[in-house]
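Review form for a predicted model. The reviewer records the input and the model, then writes brief findings.
Reviewer: anonymous (R2)
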Amino acid sequence: ERAAVSALHVNNLLVVTDGGIRSVELPIASILRVGRKAGLEIIIDHPTVSREHAIIYGGNPPCVGDLGSRNGTSVQGTRVPARKRVPLRTGYIVAIGDVNIFVRSASGSLDDDDPPSEKTSPGMEQPREWGPRSQHRELQELYDQVKLIAQSSIPILIFGETGSGKELLAERVHAFSRRADKPMLRVNCAALSEGILASELFGHEKGAFTSAHATKIGLFEAADGGTLFLDEVGELSPMTQAKLLRVLETGEVTRVGSHRAKHVDVRVISATNRDLRVQCARGEFRSDLYFRLNGVSVAIPPLRKRQEDIVTLAVYFAAGFAKRLTRPTPPWS
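Model under review:
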């Protein structure tokens, strides 16, 4: 039954330009060409986009390849090599020149502890499969608390070691919230340089810096009404911390190179594997920003402290790998 649902999996792409946001479906076995040229499946009229810029392959997972574009194609801040297809997953950011395309899931398989059915209708973003229910009492209680916390728009700060499931928990919060029909966008604060991260978060105006050939909408604007997940938030530079604090205090975002603020309604969920209180004491992280991000704090116990989940997870992942190995290879892989 799960395999049948997975076969019908359809991804959804959000194309964000200064003219607005549009949604494009990416069904299984589809091929969408991206560029300025008339007749392409996704036409983006933007000076940083080549006539035939990139190609996106529908699949599980979907993939993207560059068509020898002038300004390149990037996935999560890393440029796509020539003649190589890079797999995509829900929440990834694909940069086509200076235009962002966000990958989200329009349908997907869900377990018995999923959000209510009214939040699983077609066209609404769903999280990837959450996996088996934890046998650890503390984690079960945590997930029950998340359902209550999700109903408000209070910022959430998730603590946990690398690989403990912080992003998965953030997805769960979004799916149980009243914002579930809006985008959940995410960025790894440790993966991008300060200048690029500021541009991704807040956007920039044409001419704001040397390579700013056109206006670009940031993640805060693109996530308006939805959720923004800031992973590895403890890695933010002091300058970006100050800008982020301003947005959280005022609810307004100002693009790099602009003096005009725009109101946004975004719930911020942050995650870190660092002790931000220690960083605040050392002067490495702003205490006022920590206060703003830490509306509610959630700590995920590492797997070594919930050993009763090891066998359950091993069986779950083994079944998933077996399904992939027995699945026919798509023609575009």
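Findings: DSSP finds nine helices and 18 strands in the chain.
Further findings: The first strand starts at residue 11 and ends at 17.
Recommendation: see findings above.
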